[in-house]
Specification:
The complex is a heterodimer of chains A (309) and B (276). Chain A is of the alpha/beta class and 309 residues long. In chain A, 28% of the residues lie in helices and 15% in strands. Chain A is built from eight helices and eleven strands. In chain A, a hairpin with a 2-residue loop joins strand 9 and strand 10. Classes of the chains: A alpha/beta (309), B alpha/beta (276). The complex binds iron/sulfur cluster (SF4) (2 copies) and fe (ii) ion.
């Protein structure tokens, strides 16, 4: 691979504000290392438009456009040189990218990959191809499929008409192809976060033939379209200096991840639509401590949450 | 602890490295015997002496008597300091349930003298071996309970770890499955996860695995790394475990070679080779 010298990380250790509107300065989170690299592969372009989408994705939202293949490959080369451990693709809907398969292959040649999808575009043919690519790599490929309820009545008002069945059809195609997806559930229905909710989900998945059902719960972030559905953050929901535990940079993903989109580099996948959270044009601009002064940071801290699988 | 003379030879040519004893005092003795038969001049244990198996107070005396150079794992740190859990880093409720059963059993059956010994173990070993800088750590050199699995530890990341920690070869355990990977551009540098000797490697075999390292004839050539499968009286261990009323799930693993717990922590590639 390339042996070009990397631009050094900006060595001012001055923490970067994320441009939030909290009334007091947010606590500083050290940057431990660039272990995890997120790519906003299809920007904010999605084949559906969920009512809780915290980055307001949809068929017509190109606020962040798709990343072109060359930009992805260039980012992968830099990530290789920087010793990145793992990759995550999200959007929007990553499988809308016209070059998604070669991009997946290129990524899996240098590290493990997790793809976040709504599953709708996954056919048996695509699933078989993905399984083949996964087999050929020495690294893991995980696919995460988002669904928001155990029935159409629960899911469809959030994700859109008929999505429950189409999501499950995509997930079953993956499973038939030999890829056991992780179901990702946003706990907009509070009962799903409880242990009975989990049990109910696992039972449904077993019934559908998922012999080793995998489930990850995600708290809703009160940003983007979710603000209209569930409301925004309360005035008192923000972090101040002294709120973080020792070593929290190893708990919060933004202590060891960054997000690259067609528009630049951000601390994490949650804040790409927040004014002020853009850290620069290149990774080198973004490998520094941050001030958690966005309201969404409150959710991560309180829930001890990380987007990684 | 005073190590016997064999442990302080100026420059060993063969060393044995294992981890994850998990109270399996029978496989521990079998591994040490095999390592000596193979000519190992030093034997290293990368930690996690307790957990899973029966009779916690039987393994520590073997390590002491045999002069095994022993490192502290997360388990040993927890037991030594009488913490509430093993800090293994599991995230699944069922995994944690079983981990807690082993932990409470191990803590309750470890003598104060052994706790003190575990508490004071070193947390890292470094040595020059055949012209290469060896670094041994429990999980990873940066965190005692970081999991380095084959399918989630890519070469660019390995190179970064080696550079940041000034090493050529990194030896770790903590995951329970052995593997190794070397850099394409620098084939003498890499990671060896020595696996665990306390339970099988989730491969349908009842043997346990350790790593035997042989120094190259000339500096600049790679170290020879061989994983050795070791058979031991696993039926007797299973009987001991039943007599101690340890979970039948654990006994099954000893008898079949397939894990029945701690499965949720496996990356998808490792999991897909698994029976459960
Ligand atoms: S939540 Fe996911 S699937 Fe739904 S609109 Fe947003 S990006 Fe698309
Ligand atoms: S939203 Fe969460 S992940 Fe993003 S910067 Fe804030 S704390 Fe970190
Ligand atoms: Fe461990």
């Amino acid at each position: 691979m390339t042996a070009q010298p990397l631009p050094p990380p900006d060595d001012t250790d001055q923490p970067v504000s994320l441009g939030g509107d909290t009334p007091q300065p947010g606590p500083v989170l050290p940057f431990a290392a660039l272990d995890t690299l997120w790519l906003q592969i299809t920007g904010t372009i999605c084949n559906i438009a969920c009512r809780h989408c915290f980055i307001t994705c949809g068929p017509k939202n190109d606020s962040h456009p798709m990343m072109d293949e060359e930009h992805v490959l260039e980012t992968l080369r830099e990530a290789y040189d920087r010793g990145v451990r793992e990759y995550y693709f999200t959007g929007g809907e990553p499988f809308m990218h016209p070059k998604i398969l070669p991009i997946i292959e290129a990524t899996l040649a240098q590290g493990p990959l997790t793809i976040l999808t709504n599953g709708i575009l996954i056919t048996d043919t695509l699933a078989a191809r993905l399984a083949e690519i996964a087999q050929a790599s020495e690294y893991s490929l995980d696919v995460r499929v988002s669904i928001d309820g155990t029935t159409p009545e629960e899911n469809d008002p959030i994700r859109g008409k008929n999505t429950f069945h189409r999501i499950l059809a995509g997930a079953q195609a993956l499973h038939r192809g030999g890829i056991n997806p992780v179901f990702t559930v946003t706990t907009v229905h509070a009962r799903l976060a409880e242990s009975e909710g989990r049990a109910e989900f696992l039972a449904l998945l077993r019934e559908l033939g998922f012999t080793r059902p995998r489930l990850k719960m995600i708290p809703p972030f009160k940003l983007g379209r979710e603000v209209r559905r569930g409301g925004g953050y309360d005035a008192a929901e923000y972090l101040v200096e002294g709120d973080l535990m020792d070593g929290e940079e190893h708990v919060l993903q933004c202590g060891s991840c960054r997000m690259v989109t067609a528009k630049g580099v951000y601390p994490c996948p949650i804040l790409i639509e927040e004014e002020g959270a853009r850290m620069g044009d290149t990774l080198a601009d973004a490998l520094k401590p941050i001030r958690l002064d966005q309201r969404a940071c409150y959710t991560c801290h309180v829930e001890g949450f990380t987007c990684s699988t | 602890m005073t190590a016997p003379p064999s442990s302080t030879d100026a420059s060993p040519e063969t060393i044995a490295v294992f981890g994850g004893v998990y109270n399996n005092y029978l496989s521990l003795q079998a591994v040490i015997d095999d390592a000596r038969a193979q000519g190992a001049q030093r034997i290293y244990c990368l930690g996690d002496i307790g957990g899973f198996g029966p009779h916690p107070d039987r393994s520590v005396p073997i390590l002491q008597r045999e002069g095994v150079l022993t490192m502290q794992g997360n388990y040993d740190h927890s037991i030594g300091n009488e913490l509430e859990d093993c800090a293994c880093g599991y995230t699944d409720p069922r995994d944690n349930h079983f981990a807690q059963i082993s932990y409470d059993y191990t803590l309750g059956h470890t003598s104060d003298a052994h706790k003190a010994w575990l508490r004071d173990l070193p947390t890292e070993f470094r040595l020059e071996f055949g012209g290469h800088r060896l670094l041994m750590a429990h999980g990873s050199p940066r965190r005692v309970n970081e999991f380095l699995w084959a399918s989630t530890t890519p070469r660019p990341f390995i190179r970064r770890l080696l550079d940041e920690h000034e090493a050529d070869l990194l030896l770790v355990t903590h995951t329970g499955i052995h593997w190794s990977r070397f850099l394409e551009e620098e084939p003498t540098r890499g990671v060896v996860n020595v696996g665990a000797i306390g339970r099988p490697a989730n491969d349908g075999r009842t043997e346990v695995w350790y790593a035997l390292l042989t120094a190259p004839e000339r500096p600049g050539l790679p170290i020879d790394v061989t994983f050795r499968p070791i058979a031991y009286d696993h039926a007797r261990l299973a009987a001991d475990m039943r007599a101690e009323a340890l979970p039948e799930e654990f006994v099954e693993t000893i008898l079949t070679g397939w894990w029945t717990t701690c499965l949720e922590i496996l990356p998808i590639k490792e999991r897909s080779r698994s029976r459960y």
